[in-house]
Amino acid sequence: MSEIKDFKVLKKINLTLPHDINGIIVCPNERCVSHYCVSKFKSDINRKNQILVKCHYCEKQFMLNAK
Description:
Elements: E1 2-5, E2 8-12, E3 20-26, E4 38-45, E5 51-55, E6 61-63
Antiparallel strand pairs: 1-2, 3-4, 4-5, 5-6
């Protein structure tokens, strides 16, 4: 990400993924108690630079697809 002012790049900012993700993702596991509402997740990045999230309740890990 870049900070731009008057069509000039002032500085570059490296974005990082937060460790805890709350209130954004619904658990895709149909047996999870949080399947019908937003839940808490822990995030991680694997060796292939894919974003993985782990549900706080059922502890299943899922790959997060950015669209």
